[in-house]
Structures are given as C-alpha cells and as structure tokens.
Amino acid sequence: MTILYDEGQQAIATESRRVLEARVDKDALLPLLETVGEYHRPFWDTAKEQGWTALALPEADGGLGLGLIELGLIAHQAGRSISGAPFLTSSFGAAKAIELFGSDAQKARWLPGLASGELIGAIAFAAGPDALPRQPDLTFAGDRIEGGMRGVPAGLAADVAIVFANGQGMPVLALVDLGDVQRSAVPSFDNSRLVADLSFSGAPAEMLAIGSAARDAALRILALQSVVTAHEQTGGAEALMEIARDYALTRKAFGQPIGAFQSVKHRIAELYGLVELARANCIHAAAREGAPDFITAAAAARLSATEAYDTAARDCIQIHGGIGVTWEIGLHLHMRRARSLAIEQGSGLFWEDVLVDQLAGEAA
Amino acid sequence: MSDLEGYRAKAAGWLASMEPTFGRDARKGLSEADDLALGRRYQKAKFDAGYAGINWPTEYGGQGLGHLEKVTFDAEEMKHGFPSFYFGISLGMPVPVLMQFGSDKEFVKERVLKALQGEEIWCQLFSEPSGGSDLAGLRTKAEPDGNGWKINGQKVWTSWAHYSDYGVIVVRTDPNVPKHKGLTYFWVDMKAPGVTVRPIKLAGGDSHVNEVFFDDVKITDDHRMSPVGGGFAVAIATLMIERYVATDSAGFGPHLDLFVELAKDVQLNGRPAIEDGRIRQQIARNHAMRSGLDSINVRARLMMQAGMMPGPEGSLNKLVAVRSRQKLSELAIDLQGSDGFLFDEHASQKEDWASSWINAPTGRIAGGSDETLLNTIAEKVLGLPQDHRPDKGIPFNQIPA
User: Which of chain B's residues have a Cβ under 8 Å away from the Cβ of A72?
Assistant: First the structure.
C-alpha cells in the first residue's frame, strides 16, 4: 500500500528544497568535476546542520527516529540540485547495517557519529557488475579482512565500511574501521562521489552476519540504499524535465517556441511519464520498508528511477541543441550524476535479476 | 476495515455469487445475440442488487454513492469477465450526460431507468470519417426543418450502435463560424427513419464498432441538449465524466503473472525461458512500469477519499499501459514460437496473448490516441504551446479541405 505525504512530510520537502536552492549552484559543482578527492562541503555541512544525517536513524542512537519516506524526500531534493557528496546514502547504508545487525557496543561506537554526520560510512559489496557477488573478492578469517575492493563510492572519505566477504566458504557481512586501510582515489567522470579502491591487508573486522543471513542482510542494505538513491534519481529527472520544459517555452526556431513542435513536446511529455512512474514507485517502496515485498518494491523503484534519470539527461541535452553540450550550462552534471547513481548499489542489470527472482518465486 | 473495504468485500462476494450464471465459463460458446441477452440479464441483476448507477442520484434509480465506490466495484467486476461491456459506453457517457443536460425530466427518468436495467442501450455519435482526434472539425450537419431539425452526414467508430436504442450526437448547425462555435448537441432515436447502422469488422475479427449514416433524419427541437452553437462544451463535459474510471495497469491485456508462468513453462536454448536475460529484462521493466501505475492509482484513490482532486499523473494510465501491453504481447508470441500461431478469435484479451496483441492497436487509438494523450500532457500539465493550428479562428466553411 502506498501513501499520501502528511503535512510534516510535505514540510520536509518544502524546507529542504528551499535550503538547497539557496546554497547549491552549478558553478560550485563544476570545478569539482575536475578535482579528484574533493566534495561540496557546503552540501554536507547543510545536511549535518539540518539533521538530514540523523533523520532515519533511531532516537536511541542519536537519530531523529523518522524513516525512509522522510529521507527519500530529502534525497529527492538533493537530486534536484545535484548533491555535492554521496554520504547521505552511503552513511545511511552503513548505519542501517549497524543498527539492524550490530551489537550494542558497535551501535554505541558508530551510530552517534554517523547520525551527526561527523563520521562517514561506506558500503563495499560489489565486484564489477555484480552488486552482491556469489564469490566475494574479500576473505574474512580470524576477525581480519584480506583483499581489495575496487570502486567504492564515498570510499575516499569513509571512516567505516560494511563489507561482504568470503569466510571459509560462507558469505560474511562485516564491519571494518577504515582508519588504517589504504585507499586510492579512482579518477571518475563524477569525482565528488569520492570513489576509491580499498586495500584491506588484514585490517581488523567485526562480523555482523554469516551464511544466508549475511546475504539477506546485504541485499536488504542495498535495497534500503537503493530506495534513497531512487528518490535522488527521480529528483534529478524531475529537475531536468522542468529545465527542458522551460527551455522549450523560451527558445524559438522557425518563428515559434520549439515546444510547439511535437517532436519536442512529446519528448518532454514522455519524460513527465517516466518521472511520475518513478516517483510513484519511490513513494510505494519507501512506505514498504520492513514489509515482505520490500525488495520487490525497492527494485521497481530503482529500475524506473534509473530509466527516468538517464532518459531525462539524454533528452534534456538533446532538446537544448548546441548549448546543451557546453561545459558552462552544466547539464552534463546531471548526465554524469545519472550514470554514477545508476551503478552505485548495483546497476539495472543487477536489480532486474533481483526483481525477477522475487516475481518468479526464486528468491534466495 | 474501512467503509470502503467493507463495500469492496461485499461487492466481491456478490460478484462471486454471479460467476456461475454470468462468468467466463457461462459465456463460452454463446453467439453474440445470446451473450447480449445474458448481458441484459446481468445488468438487471446488478440493478436489483444495488450495483447499477452506483454514483448516480437516487432520484434516477442510482445508489447516490461516490466515485470511489463505483471505481471499487468496477475493479472487482473486471476480474470476472462478465458480459458488461455492451453497457460500458451507454452508462459511461451518454446516459449521464442525458441526466445532466436532458430537458424533459420525465422522459429522462424513464430512459435512465431502462438503461440501468439493461433494457435500452445508448451510443455516442462523435467521431467521423474526416477526423477522430479533431472532434470540433466534424461535418455531419443539422439544418432547421420546420420546428425541428434535419440531420445529414456520417459518424464512425460508434461502439454498439447496432444494438443501440438511442444515441447522443454532436452536429454542425452553423458552418459560417469557427469550428468549435458552430456545433450543437442532440439525442437521436437510433430506430428513426433515415438512420442506417453498418458494422465495421475490426482487425481482430470482431465488429463492435459501426458506421452510422444519417439521411434526412428529422428530429424535434426537444432533442436538443445544448444551446444552438453550444454543443462543444457538452461534448467536452461528456468526455470529462469518464475521468474517474477503473484503471488497469495491464492495459486491459493479460496480467504479468501470466507472462511469468509462460516464461517458466517454455524452454529457450535448453533452459526455462525465465532464465534468459532478454526475457528477464522485459519482465522486470514491465513490472516496474505496472507497479508505478498501480501506485499512481492507489494514490488517486487515497486523494479522492481525502476529498482531494487526484493529480494529473492519472492521465498516464492508458498511454503507458496499452503500448507496453502491445510489445509484451509480441514477446509472448515470440516465446511460444511455433506454438504461437494458434489463434482463437473468441479468446479474452485479458487472458490470451494473441488476442491481446491483435486488439492492442485499437487500445492505442480509441478514447484518445497516444499522440493526442501526449499533446494533452504537454499542453495541459506542462504548459507547453499548442500545435500550430491553421484552422484556428477561421469560419468552418473557409478551412482549406
């Protein structure tokens, strides 16, 4: 069952939009594209100051006790204005893993810092296109992690990572303090995501789950993060649809606004459809947190939001013509972000398989 | 349990009890005449049980409930394959418009009661050979004739006209003014002299739509349902009545579960097709699309329950669902391969892929083509400009043919 936003939730959306529109602009984001290892600090400072980092964590652990619906609303607005750092999602994922599967000591050690935003978390499960590998690259033995992870979003700044490792033939979900872990920045088309390769070389690790429980737990973490990301993608797609609409109303060719040509107006109407389907799936998925069909709902949200954002990026630039491909106009910020979000927490290929496994009754 | 859920449960119970008499199995092998007769009995049963005219005023034999109850009942009814479609147009648009705009209240009441009980059927005479999307460009004309009017011209795509007792019609009464301003709205007796109905066989083999010819059909002025020249507004009101209808994210084709079952049953490259990436991708994408529409529709219902107007995103339903159904039906036939040739023209579009496929083009055209719907979204929702319209503001008889 989906929901209508209540007044409090609507206020979260309005207020976060107001704050972000006042503090974020593309001129601050463009230089970050050409700088490896930097993120937009005003964005993250805003997230901390506004309590967004604490929003969906339990009050007992320094959070605000709200949930995925509220965090999704923030992520939607962050997506509209192109978020300056990946931590809203990465830290949420790590914090949920600790909240759901960690000990009291682990919660006390990490959650207050993650909730305040002083500490940053990352999720490191993927091996190439497989967001949750059957044979993880990392090995877990004797409470230590060996091996390396490639392409971990937020990996360059994270204080703690949740990893998926091979523990003597059994999958293991483990927590790693990244204090002494070696990392190297991955030069990316979207550098403020702070993607890093991590080299663990025997770093101490604490097991959170093992066996099929570890796999279920990891998928649940990915699904929770994916719902946040899907909201962010939908926000980006919505912004692009509006930019395209506004441009089509003002730009003239052959004596009329280009939005009067069906090839242009229908393209924008199709974007509207993709955005609304993605939004509807996002709201539904956020409202299903903890329900038996949550994975299915999260996968549907993720797939439709990825399609909406990628398509909106393609089409918005196309509608702008030559000006759309300039550095200065910044539409490529969205185009880049659409792709980086598309592969964080598993690409569409991964979520299609997850979804069909659920629908066909083959879920693990 | 909310009131509405209680209503749904009660309706579902009643519908289930009707299944043996009126359901899919009871209809198998019936001729269309027998099926229509069964449909009339089903409509009467609905009336007697209080499920006809659910959201219509009680003074006209309705139940005086809201859109929500009606949509709830329709969604439940859709599951059973009852012979209700003969009355879908009749009770969907022409009869509600008659209630709203008919001048002779006694006459209206008699007609409404007969229509609600399945005794009489009404059709809607809008589209013409010269245009369907461009409603205001219609050419059928009514000229003053004594104290009344004389109609000449042709309508087309008129659903169930061959079974209809009455129809509502938009005609041109003044060709000397711009096209929207010269139209007038009437009701007509479909059995009147000069009315000729000729069924059109559609691509799928069935013939529920018709051409309707009017040759000097004389009507009195009390048939008029709009001011002279004010017919376009009533025509738009007719189309607006159907804003709150039961939706189907399957595009009125088979449920995705049927595709998943097919993909499990069929072998592709020596493995169940459900393991094939191409098939999996289409299942996943169709599910994501359908779940999005389902969520849009649940939210629309919640908004209505809260006394709000549903958002414009509901207009995506037909556009998105039917064209997806068309492609998925093609893929389902691909999956069956050499077993996919089999065609049963009486099979249900909700259960049979070939039937769904061959009837899908109708779904993408009837009730607003994909292109018209995209224009509506672009213009009414997003505020984009209208297309260039060379006929705008020009008297109808000066528009270049």
Answer: none
CB contact under 8 A, B382 and A303: no
Q: Give chain B's radius of gyration (CA, Å).
A: 22
Q: SS3 sequence, A204-263?
A: EEEEEEECHHHHHHHHHHHHHHHHHHHHHHHHHHHHHHHHHHHHHHHCEECCEEHHHCHH
Q: Chain A contact for B309, CB < 8 A?
A: no
Q: Pick the closest to residue A124 from A142, A99, A151 (CA basis).
A: A151
Choose the closest CB to A281 out of B283, B295, B303: B295
Instruction: Give the helix/strand (H/E) hosting A185.
Output: strand A182-185
Query: B55 CA to chain A: closest CA distance, Å?
Result: 24
The pLDDT-based confidence of B4 (bands split at 50, 70, 90) is confident
Say which range, A259-268, A290-299, B62-71, B164-173, has the weakest mean pLDDT.
B62-71
Q: A87-101 and A104-116 helices cross at what angle (nearest 10)?
A: 160
User: Over 60: is that where the pLDDT of A57 sits?
Assistant: yes
Complex confidence, ipTM? 0.94
Mean of the pLDDT values across residues A19-31? Answer: 94
Residue of A6, A240, A277 to mutate, testing the B interface (most B Cβ within 10 Å of its Cβ): A277
**Contact between B288 and A281 using a beta-carbon 8 Å cutoff:** yes
Task: Return the pLDDT at B247.
Answer: 81
Spatial distance between the Cα atoms of A351 and A299, rounded to a whole number of angstroms: 6
Which residues of chain A make contact with B377, given a CB cutoff of 8 A?
269, 272-273
Nearest by CB to residue A4, choosing from B256, B306, B319, is: B306
Tokens of A126: 């993927």
Claim: this prediction has a pTM higher than 0.80: yes
Tokens for A178?
A: 């990244």
Q: Which residues in chain B touch residue A296, judged by CB atoms under 8 angstroms apart? A: 287, 291
Instruction: Indicate yes or no: CB of A260 within 8 angstroms of CB of B293.
Output: no
Phi-psi region of B195 (alpha: psi -120 to 50; beta: other; left: phi over 0): beta
CB contact under 8 A, B293 and A277: yes
Q: Which of A224-238, B320-334, B343-357 has the lowest mean pLDDT?
A: B343-357
Give me the residue label for tokens 């967001």. Answer: A131
